[in-house]
Amino acid sequence: MSSNKRIKGISVTRPFYFGNIAMPLTGKKAADSDHTHKWTVMVRGINNEDLSYYIKKVVFKLHETYANPLRTVEQPPFEVSETGWGEFEIMIKIHFQAVTSEKPVTLYHHLRLHPYEDDPSGKPWPADRPVSSFIYDELIFNEPTEQFYQILSEHNALTSNLPAKKPNKDNPTVPQFSVQLEQEELERLDHAQREVNMQIMQLRQQMAAIEQDRYKS
Ligand code: V91
Predict the structure, then answer these.
(1) DSSP structure class, residue 145
(2) pTM (2 decimals)?
(3) Does the CB atom of residue 110 touch ligand 1 within 6 A?
(4) Helices and strands: H and E segment counts in the chain
């Protein structure tokens, strides 16, 4: 018997990545408009895992100057391809299958069209080499419903499916995650840690003050 009841004390983590790949437009296509790049923004599973057993749809919100900026993708691959001339923020909203009883999750991705100026190798970026920016992330399902847990187990999703070895640069099964974005994430985590430590200190002081007041009376 599996039901909509939630399983207490259990968390299931699913790894995934999101981001974009981009290429400069060449020849006729480039001459036809002021658009300079073709790009694809996507949400994907690790090792090509099909995410549709728990993701119902993904809504990509492009810059409002695009025609129909809300792009809804109801089947994998969860991706949108477009052309344009600039970088902007894309809102990505992941809607889960009803069986999960999970609220949608919103992500933000800064569309990247241009290579980093400080390429670590110092070599210029080959014109025909796509630029990409991907973020690795994990969806954590806390206290999944019994039904959803059953589905997760049928998809071997209760144990990690991270690649055991470092991805081979020449034949990657996962993209290379951006060093700069990794650094930015570390800075956000560091900032959050400091913020939480400060709040803990403030609450301790408040508690001490309350204790003292109580002692006086
Ligand atoms: C940026 C709109 C093609 C501004 C400075 C962009 C939209 C917003 C952008 C775009 C910012 C779409 C159109 C008519 C036809 C730094 N497109 N924002 N097609 N980055 O590429 O670039 S770019 S509008």
Answers:
(1) B
(2) 0.81
(3) no
(4) 3, 8
